[in-house]
Specification:
single chain, alpha+beta, D-amino Acid Aminotransferase, Chain A, domain 1, D-amino Acid Aminotransferase, Chain A, domain 2, seven-stranded antiparallel beta sheet, 8 helices, about 30% helix, globular, binds 4'-deoxy-4'-aminopyridoxal-5'-phosphate
């Protein structure tokens, strides 16, 4: 069972400029986005009826589309407005927004210059993705046999669907071995991120996270760096070896859906049970998003 299992209609969906019923939010089987991965997406949270850092998510979506060569016909303002219109129509207080952009079926060539761009935004009802007991205990990660690729072998600056083939394989591998998630190293052997979250460690009171050149520069990651600086915690983006992570005093993951999630162990190596900095930053994050 996934926390994102969808067992009933959650419509309407904003699609190419208008709200359509859930069952009509479909695409053609020959869509280039589906066949050739010309597809980018976002994931944002709704807290108290408002999308957290909506503009940052919309900006990242536009940037992702640009990197992938997908022509966008909507401005930043229009994307934000469409998202707000949908959230209002859905009447959601707590939820998750999934905008997705892909090239259509009008051109089955590799570059597909004639394929039209489609944009859909769905808003799902979503409460706490991570049960309180899992948040309290922390998650167990397994270092993946899959590695994040080099920048000249994948469009790493984009939140593009193509990256999630690797993420899905890594997650299935970790879960099949009885772990909660996978820790991905990059092609050089540095720590990159988990399958849908960024990683942080605490060592001697300082907060460290990998430079986001082989990982997504998460919006939650950026918020946590800001919060740490506000607390006068030394916070740096740096290169981390797996050994640095295993020797850390605390470690946690960050992401829109998971928020701040402590790591209990990596490959069977346990972290100390006390997590003062993780706990403090979690409190700060929950107040920032209006959850505390
Ligand atoms: N890394 C990956 C691979 C992700 O899919 C996500 C989720 N979007 C993150 C990190 C965290 O990013 P954010 O904080 O923007 O949700």
């Amino acid at each position: 069972m996934s926390f994102f299992s969808i067992d009933a209609a959650q419509g309407p969906v904003w699609m190419d400029g208008r709200l359509v019923p859930w069952d009509e939010a479909t695409l053609h089987a020959l869509s280039h986005g589906l066949n050739n991965a010309s597809c980018v997406f976002e994931g944002a949270r709704i807290y108290a009826g408002k999308v957290f850092r909506l503009e940052k998510h919309a900006r990242r979506l536009l940037k992702s589309a640009e990197i992938m060569g997908i022509t966008m016909h909507y401005t930043l303002a229009r994307l934000c407005e469409a998202t707000e219109e949908l959230v209002r129509a859905r009447g959601l207080e707590s939820g998750y927004v999934r905008p997705v952009v892909w090239k259509g079926h009008e051109d089955l060539g590799i570059a597909a210059p004639h394929a039209k761009t489609h944009v859909a935004i769905a808003a799902l009802s979503l409460g706490d993705v991570v049960p309180a007991e899992v948040r309290a205990a922390g998650v167990r990660l397994k270092t993946s046999s899959w590695a994040r690729p080099a920048p000249n072998t994948a469009p790493l600056g984009a939140k593009a669907s193509c990256h999630y083939a690797l993420g899905s394989l890594a997650m299935r591998e970790a879960q099949a071995a009885g772990f909660d998630d996978a820790l991905l190293l990059d092609y050089r052997g540095f720590v990159a991120e988990a399958t849908g979250t960024n990683i942080f460690i605490v060592k001697n009171g300082a907060l460290l996270t990998p430079i986001a050149d082989c990982a997504l520069d998460g919006i939650t990651r950026q918020a946590v760096l800001e919060l740490a600086r506000r607390r006068n915690i030394d916070a740096a983006e740096t290169r981390l070896y797996p050994k640095d992570v295993c020797e850390a005093d605390e470690a946690f993951l960050t992401g829109t859906a998971s928020e701040i999630l402590p790591i209990r162990a990596i490959d069977g190596v346990n972290f100390p049970a006390a997590r003062p900095i993780t706990d403090a930053l979690t409190d700060d994050y929950f107040s920032l998003v209006g959850k505390a």
